[in-house]
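Record 1 of the preview.
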Amino acid sequence: MRLLLCEINMFENLTNKFEEVFSSLKKAPSLDERQVDEGLRSIRQALLEADVSLDVAKEFIEKVKPKALGQEIIRSTSPGDMVVKIVYDELVSLLGEKNNDVNLNAVPPVPMMLVGLQGSGKTTTTAKLAKYLENNKKKRVMMVSLDIYRPAAQEQLKSLGEQNNILTLPIIEGQQPADICQRALSAANLNGADVILFDTAGRTQIDLQMMSEIKQIENIIKPAETFLVADSLTGQVAASVAKEFKDTVNLSGIILTRADGDARGGAAVSMKFISQVPIKFLGIGEKINNLEVGRREFKKGTILYGRLFSTTKTNEKNGWNRRHHVFYAWCFKS
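->
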């Protein structure tokens, strides 16, 4: 197993802001409600500056505040340290404590659907996911383009398949998405595919036609996985995007693209919070193999990026290992 420190750029801004807040809290020998309010106000501001949506930041603070004010202080632990612990625990709860593998527990061919806005990288991600399933799960994959609207979208997926030796459904000009789905299911049974990846059409913004179409597709193929593909640079609109798709289809996971870019981390936090599904993959480059499994490890002993807890001592007796560093990191296994 290898653990990589990733997403440093994505979460560095939030990390630094939290460090400033927690540093002042931990210096206080005691905390009153006013000090806690000031600290939480600064945390809320840090979340907003990292492009976490207003509603998500507000709800997060509402969950933390009563615990921070009512928490019984553990022996040998300062009030400031306890507030740090409470915020940390809430973030662990929000972002997830365990890895969530791809669901292949279905009768082959297992259908999976990728949805998202145009420009989020769905088509490239479809090919990356196919290669991941072939290399890591030893599955024969067939890719299917349902995007009959964007010029050359189907040809793009076909080209990616040819370049990387991945099976694709032959294109029939003028065929509608519902008919393509039916043909794909039949073809996959004939050619022995274990998994079918359906690359759905996106729009520059969410509209009724797109949502109706992906709902129809979902009813036809009954996917074992429905991935929301989203650009890490989406910003504060990430929450509304996640909500619209969550309200329309049965999302099972998120794939964040351009995770190696200059994102502030807000899209990841907002989408996870709103959708309540795990971030299963990160796109970290342009190459076919640049797709990493998102694994959130918060167990003791795991190396996490950051410095928030680096000045506190280990207190194993009370079930909290404060050697854990900042609020969040992505770790990977291979």
